[in-house]
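Below is how a single chain appears once it has passed through the pipeline. First comes the sequence as given, then the structure the pipeline wrote out for it. We keep one example in the README because the format questions we get most often are answered faster by looking than by reading.
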Amino acid sequence: MSKERGHSGNGDEKIGAVMVVGGGVGGMQAALDLANSGFKVYLVEEGSAIGGRMAQLDKTFPTNDCSMCTISPKLVETGRHLNIALMTDTDLMKVEGEAGHFRVTVRRRPRYIDVTKCTGCSDCAQVCPVPIVGRFDEGMAQQRAAFKLYPQAVPNAYAIEKRGVAACRDACPTGQRAQGYIALIREGRYQDAMRTIKEDNPFPGICGRICNHRCEEACNRNQVDEPISIASLKRFVADQIYSQPYNPPDPVPYKFEEKVAIIGAGPCGLTAAGDLRKLGYPVTVFEALPLAGGMLRVGIPDYRLPPMIVDREVREIIDLGIYLRLNTPVTNLDEVMKEGFKAV
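Resulting structure:
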């Protein structure tokens, strides 16, 4: 660790920093003793909160005292001590050097929730659709993927544990969060599932019918029996939402004056137009055909892709505030730029 200076209460100068590995009761006491002596202490804990095994116990041997009553004061003091830096979700990878001068390599895993902003209100856990086995309870209870290790946890913040990118999402060209919307479908939250799909893909009803679903080829369930019908589930959600009365999207305020022209109202052009409009740009789409949709309109038969599905999903993009100019082929980009567009 790099050398730092601190001062003890009696005025003696302390040089150097100390790393304590493990945030259990022993680690917390060692960190407090060193910090109170004037040293800068880095307390490394692999979990999302300090407390260790003692936090999991009901009583302590042999006095039969309440374990949480014993360590709660230490939890609070450790979390608030100015000389102690908590490094949760951190693995010790390598220690080099000699006594008095060590160099330590650690790997800090992402928490996915900002500890400085989290208030521990549990709202994220209440809406999280993914149940997992509760590790703190040794598998005797379930918790959500967004969790706080235990009620008195320090830091008093939630965390999300992930094991990299899901195989289905990695295989999808749009990076679709299939595992997310499938979990929401399981809970019957179809509106939330549709919102999750549309974060990455503005055409759920279309892709649910004509996509070649590479996600299913990569699905880990293949290693057990057969893949989850991801494309069919996407189509199911779209049909559920589209069977209800249409509610146009909220208008997007303009943040920029520079106008952008999109040539072609096919799936790529409409996706780009929608993304730019959500960023606050004025967008105009030029289309040579009398209808928007490109090859979705003229290249796929109606029995495979019903026109009403294309109409609905195109309309949702146009209703963001996009100007659509049909029957307008573009043959000269200079003429387009003369109309005041800053980008094509």
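Residues 1-9 have pLDDT under 50 and may be disordered.

See the next section for the split statistics.
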